[in-house]
Write a structure and sequence with these properties.
Elements: H1 9-33, H2 48-82
Length: 89
């Protein structure tokens, strides 16, 4: 089943920002378990493997929303340009 959501361009941008923030938290978690120094909060309810899986999930979600947003912007621009015509001389 697919779900179609209707929202403003700005709201879609906010969703992308939120998804990026969650992905970054899982990246910090992965890095922490790899022994790297991290700056910021980590997800304490998972291990490195789960963090890697969640990074993939958030990458996919970000790509889906961003791609659809770009496609919609392109379609809106094409509609805008096609509806413009010069008056007859």
């Amino acid at each position: 089943m697919q779900v179609n959501l209707v929202m403003s361009d700005g709201d879609a941008g906010q969703i992308i920002d939120g998804l990026i923030s969650r992905k970054e938290a899982y990246e910090r978690t992965r890095d922490y378990y790899l022994g790297e120094t991290v700056d910021g909060l980590i997800e304490d309810d998972c291990d490195e493997e789960i963090a890697r899986d969640m990074i993939d999930v958030y990458d996919r979600l970000i790509n889906i929303v961003f791609t659809q947003l770009q496609e919609q912007r392109k379609q809106d621009e094409e509609k805008k340009n096609s509806s413009f015509s010069l008056p007859p001389e």
